[in-house]
Amino acid sequence: MSTPIIFNTLHFDQPWTLENYLKVGGYKALRKVLAEKMLPEAIIAEVKASGLRGRGGAGFPTGLKWSFMPRNYQGDKYLVCNSDEGEPGTCKDRDILRYNPHMLIEGMAIAAYTMSVKTGYNYIHGEIFEAYERMEAACEEARKAGYLGQNILGSDFEFDLHNHLGYGAYVCGEETALLESIEGKKGQPRFKPPFPATFGLYGKPTTINNTETFASIPYIINNGGQQFADLGVPNSGGIKLFSVSGHVNNPGNFEVPMGTPFKTLLEMAGGVRGGNKLKAVIPGGSSMPVLPGEIMMDLNMDFDSIQKAGSYLGTGAIIVMDETTCMVKALERLSYFYFEESCGQCTPCREGTGWLYRIVHRIEHGEGRPEDLDLLLDLCNNIAGRTICALGDAAAWPVQGFLKHYRKEFEYHIEHKRCLV
Amino acid sequence: MLSDQIQANIERELKKYPADQRQSAVMAALRFVQDEKGWIAPEDMADIAAYIGMPQMAVFEVATFYHMYKLKPMGEYTLTVCTNLSCQLSGVNETLLHLKNKLGIGLGEITADGKFGLREGECMGACVDAPMFTINNKKLCGRLTGEKIDQILAELSAGGQGGKQ
Ligand SMILES: Cc1cc2nc3c(=O)[nH]c(=O)nc-3n(C[C@H](O)[C@H](O)[C@H](O)COP(=O)(O)O)c2cc1C
Ligand code: SF4
Ligand code: FES
């Protein structure tokens, strides 16, 4: 493996300290931006050239997103980091917060400079309190050392960053729900448009990116966008963190180039547990359609390859299931999750997720009816694309994916009132 | 009345937000009350509303929307177990069974001595460390085995912090 980019402090006993970050070239990119008084357009051009696409699930080009922020707006603007990672299977941002908080701070400071923003918030998933404390300490350390606050590194650039702890609501990962939550309200997504770049936090222009997206910025500034792009494959620039969980011998987060074969990642995670046969894989977090193991073994982990196979790269969270997995039971748990986490604003999502869960539940418990499978698909069609936020789609896609590839197993359950496996 | 400590903590949070956006500190305020008292009662919500200067109803909405707030006592140590897919695949059902047997309670219940409470949680964003629980929303204990659970419970019973991670 080449030297890691985001996990570049992991070899230290205390990877998270400012001292150690500086030893591996930390804050050099911010220093360069300020010393050379780099033009915002030049920075955005590098980010565009890097091919960096949002790591929060939707894969939106980061450079393009940054260019949407109104340049000459008089008044407050905000920068927000989405560390509300709660998409089942996904736990990469936690390791950035815990092990390389200063890389996130540096990336955000550069973004803030580019979009002339003075205040940033980092919204952290409630359950990872230790990561929140780590970030609070890192921000304090950065303030004392002059990387945050007024006159950063002796320049006239000013930016401060604050951490906001979530408290258990998956939907707050959706960017507008997240903004509502920072405002001290229920986390219910807003109608779009207006988009956050025009009406964001406290009604001001706001840019929201994922933790890993920001953490990729210092490398791009230090080495140029092209070099980052070249690490990956066309249309999927750079490196990516993949969380590999489920039925593997050595679950963990792995930093590899985009386009790395799934097979390689599976090996890095120690292979399927107990030498069992691979059955199925969810390639991008629980909302993405499941794919059969045989298909996955021939796939590379990048946006286009996964999409061609009928799923999405999403957050890059790989959930591995071996031959002992009951697909009905697995889907039952996911459907319960979306039902539980629906914010209840739109009828198709609020009612539909309940229907999905109850039907999969009755199939799992031997009370399924032959017409249930078509009913499930019908419900999915009535949810996906008909809601305020993408949680509706996120609830429908797993159902569609499981039925597409494992319909026989569901039919067996309905007919025999028990598992095939 | 909010204790001096809670008020000081809220003041520290308020500094993070614009002066005219005090409501942004409500999530933290509820958390501070819960950390001190173990759960949040309607009177606490009223105190928070008065302190921050927002409608009581708006505090109530926040307290009921986010799953990690406890609106009734859930034991001195609340253990919240993630049962979502990655954890399910990694044997959380056995973890739960072990906990239920050991504590003699089910999900949503508290032990007779009020020491432990058991809750089900959603994905904690730590899936590679499955199976896991959090203690009082603060400490996350992962890669649990029966032996490790027994050790953590013993430490907590003795008044310790439980499970170094
Ligand atoms: C229900 C739902 C949950 C989401 N959860 C997260 C999350 O935990 N982290 C995240 O970065 N993006 C999440 N997103 C995507 C965000 O809305 C947004 O696209 C992303 O933060 C933008 O950052 P990026 O462009 O850097 O990826 C979620 C979206 C939806 C619909
Ligand atoms: S799709 Fe679901 S979660 Fe999203 S706004 Fe509508 S009800 Fe809320
Ligand atoms: S599924 Fe349990 S922590 Fe993510």
Describe the structure.
The complex is a heterodimer of chains A (421) and B (165). Chain A is α/β, with parallel strands linked by helices and 421 residues long. Chain A has 18 helices and 11 strands. Chain A has helices at 18-23, 28-35, 40-49, 62-67, 92-99, 101-114, 129-144, 175-182, 211-215, 217-223, 225-231, 262-268, 293-296, 303-308, 327-341, 347-364, 372-383, 391-416, and strands at residues 78-83, 119-124, 160-165, 206-210, 239-246, 252-257, 260-261, 278-282, 291-292, 300-301, 317-322. A 5-stranded mixed beta sheet of chain A has the order 6-5-11-8-9, with helices on both faces. A 4-stranded parallel beta sheet of chain A has the order 3-2-1-4, sandwiched between helices. In chain A, α16 (347-364) packs antiparallel against α17 (372-383). Chain A is globular, with a radius of gyration of 22 Å. Chain B has 165 residues and is α+β, with helices and mostly antiparallel strands. Chain B folds into 2 domains: 4-65, NADH-quinone oxidoreductase subunit E (Arc Repressor Mutant, subunit A); 77-157, Glutaredoxin. Chain B has 7 helices and 4 strands; from the N terminus they run ααααβααβββα. Chain B has helices at 4-14, 26-37, 42-52, 56-65, 85-89, 92-103, 146-157; strands at residues 77-82, 116-121, 133-135, 139-141. Chain B has a 4-stranded mixed beta sheet, with helices on one face. In chain B, β3 (133-135) and β4 form a beta hairpin. In chain B, α3 (42-52) packs across α4. The longest helix of chain B is centred in the N-terminal third of the chain and has 12 residues, at 26-37. The radius of gyration of chain B is 17 Å and the shape is elongated. Classes of the chains: A alpha/beta (421), B alpha+beta (165). Chains A and B meet through β3, β5, β11 and α15 of A and α2, α4 and α5 of B. The structure holds flavin mononucleotide, iron/sulfur cluster and FE2/S2 (inorganic) cluster. Flavin mononucleotide binds next to β4 and α18 of chain A. Iron/sulfur cluster binds next to α16 and α18 of chain A.
